[in-house]
Design a protein that fits this description.
Blueprint (H helix, E strand, L loop, with lengths): L1 H35 L10 H13 L9 H6 L2 H8 L5 H11 L6 H16 L1 H12 L9 H8 L8 H19 L1 H49 L5 H13 L1 H4 L14 H13 L1 H15 L1 H26 L7 E3 L6 E6 L10 E5 L2 E5 L6 H15 L9 E5 L2 E5 L12 H15 L6 E6 L7 H16 L3 E6 L3 H6 L4 E5 L2 E4 L2 E4 L4 E2 L7 H7 L4 H17 L7
Parallel strand pairs: 1-5, 4-8, 4-9, 6-7, 7-8
Antiparallel strand pairs: 2-3, 2-5, 9-12, 10-11
Helix pairs in contact: 1-7, 2-5, 5-15, 6-15, 7-10, 8-10, 9-10, 10-11, 10-13, 10-14, 11-15, 20-21
């Protein structure tokens, strides 16, 4: 009895210490949430992490309106995602990623997202309470939650008899200590070592699945915490979550000792970890949980979506807070495609130059390298996506049609498929043409169309491709160095340009969008800025002037 009493005292001490530790951690978490609000998230994601983030997006039905991989990569959307990813859970971060890949065409849905964002922006106490509840679910660093939730379906239940035998043997050995301390001690040691070895052998096979089960349990726990907050503005979500959680009562029952339900790593969790190793508690429970999980897969999906939405909308609210300014877009269905934006800027630039444009016609943008053409059309595309996903435009005013967004910009040779740059280009443009439909207009952005071929064929082919796009249900923004296109496509495209000037042997850009085609001819002058010989510069200027006069290039003698 003496030993039993000591064990009970130790357990009670650890329990009390755990409660005190949890309170201290809660204070720290609250302070941290306040500190992080409206700030750029510090977390950096590897390519492997981004690949795992895609799992939820891949699991939902992809359609022709999604932001495809080419467009996503062209626009550096991974960086945009990291800028706003102030989520508190793996569910939230996977949901936010999927949301950004799927522009919404429903006014009602976008307005609901905006309602939540607006609420979280203005109700700090309720927001922090919700963040705290969701933060208890935690983030898994090495695996995708949804990936392994999907893989739980593949798991087959195994017999628990070996685990029962090993647990019973250890308990019997501990009991023998009271009868024969020496013999009981030896048996206890043998069973303990064997149980630990067998535990890690089996756990290695299902460890990631156990991690996900533990995550699901924390998720279900958090629902209770969210419900207790009694936040009227999210009651429609908490009501659904409460009903869905009730379905998992058999899943939860008896699971408290199986896996850590906290992400704090306190002393009580450590003690319970040793119990799991010695008595295989989590392994035994795992098999019964699999059966329950498989019966309620769709319910878990709904929980994932509702918690993910709340978590991601808080993150968007924080994103809005860090912006110098933003607006809620005005989106329109039907009629001629149009886009009108005031003081648009790029969120990743430290000192961006705002620009404005209002067009119902497709646009050609000319100008020299580094003048701002590519940045401008990327900014337009990013704003179109954010407007139809998080109902946020990084501008002072944004009015536009609902669009399907495509780009063809940062392309490269595909060495794995043995495709040249030109082949990659024409395939990229063809996919845009193939997606044009009479219902939802295409908003597409093209940078240096067909740069992968010779001048003659480039101008001939690109002019016809661009004309075809402009004559269909599409609004095109194309950047080009080919001034010839501004003349050939005058009936179909409005001309704009970026310009620069050379002063004191320096090139100066204003990064402002100007009406009309580019007229400056500074490319040759830039040779002088970089120290090329006067002979090369003069001969180049003469050759250019002669071509403009006679339409032919003279041979170099």
């Amino acid at each position: 009895m003496k030993y039993v009493f000591i064990i009970l005292v130790v357990i009670l001490f650890l329990f009390v210490l755990s409660l005190w530790n949890e309170k201290q951690l809660a204070k720290k978490r609250k302070a941290q949430l306040k500190k992080e609000w409206g700030q750029i998230p510090e977390e950096e994601y590897t390519s492997e992490k981004f690949d795992s983030l895609k799992e939820f997006y891949r699991s939902i039905q992809e359609d022709r309106y999604d932001v495809d991989d080419i467009t996503w990569n062209d626009l550096d959307m991974d960086d945009i995602y990291m800028l706003m990813n102030n989520t508190q859970s793996s569910i939230g971060e996977e949901y936010l990623y999927a949301l950004l890949r799927k522009p919404c065409l429903s006014k009602t849905e976008l307005e609901e997202r905006n309602r939540l964002i607006h609420f979280f922006n203005h109700k700090e106490e309720q927001r922090i309470a919700l963040q705290t509840a969701i933060k208890s679910v935690g983030k898994l660093q090495q695996i995708s939650v949804y990936q392994y939730i999907n893989r739980l379906d593949e798991q087959k239940s195994q017999s628990n008899l070996p685990h029962y035998f090993m647990a019973f043997g250890l308990l019997l050995s501990v009991g023998l200590i009271f009868v024969n301390p020496a013999y009981g001690g030896i048996c206890t040691l043998i069973f303990a070592v064997n149980n630990i070895i067998q535990y890690y052998k089996r756990k290695a096979e299902i460890d990631k699945y156990l991690t996900v089960v533990a995550y699901i349990l924390r998720l279900l726990d958090s629902i209770g915490d969210i419900e207790k907050l009694n936040i009227e503005e999210i009651s429609q979500y908490t009501d659904t979550l409460r009903k869905d959680k009730a379905v998992f009562k058999p899943f939860i029952r008896g699971a408290a000792i199986l896996t850590s339900r906290s992400v704090s790593g306190n002393l009580l969790d450590t003690f319970v970890d040793y119990l799991r190793m010695l008595f295989h508690l989590d392994l035994i429970k795992f098999n019964s949980m699999i059966t329950i999980f498989k019966k309620n897969r769709e319910v878990l999906n709904r929980i994932f979506i509702n918690v993910g939405l709340l978590d991601s909308m808080v993150a968007v609210a924080s994103f809005r807070e860090m912006l110098p300014y933003y607006c809620e877009p005005e989106l329109t269905k039907g009629g001629r495609p149009f886009l009108s934006v005031t003081d648009l800027y790029h969120p990743l630039l430290s000192n961006p130059v705002p620009n404005s444009i209002s067009e119902t016609d497709s646009v050609l943008i000319t100008g020299s390298n580094a003048s701002g053409k590519s940045t401008f059309i990327k900014t337009m595309a990013i704003n179109a996506i954010l407007s139809q996903t998080i109902f946020t435009s990084i501008s002072r005013k944004y009015r536009a049609s609902y669009f399907i967004v495509f780009s063809s910009m940062a392309l490269r040779d595909n060495i794995f498929s043995n495709e040249s740059y030109y082949i990659v280009e024409i395939k990229s443009l063809k996919r845009i043409l193939d997606h044009i439909n009479p219902e939802i207009p295409i908003l597409c952005f093209i940078d240096e169309v067909l740069r992968g071929t010779n001048t003659l064929e480039r101008i001939a082919a690109s002019s016809r491709i661009l004309a075809s796009l402009a004559q269909k249900n599409a609004l095109v923004f194309a950047a080009t160095h080919d001034i010839e296109l501004t003349h050939i496509l005058e009936e179909h495209y409005r001309n704009y340009h970026f310009q620069e000037r050379i002063a004191d042997n320096q090139i100066l850009f204003d990064y402002q969008l100007h009406s009309g085609r580019a007229v400056s001819k500074n490319a040759i002058k830039l040779l002088g800025v970089l120290g090329y010989s006067r002979k090369i510069i003069d001969e180049a200027e003469q050759a250019a002037e002669e071509f403009m006069r006679v339409g032919e290039w003279s041979k170099i003698q």
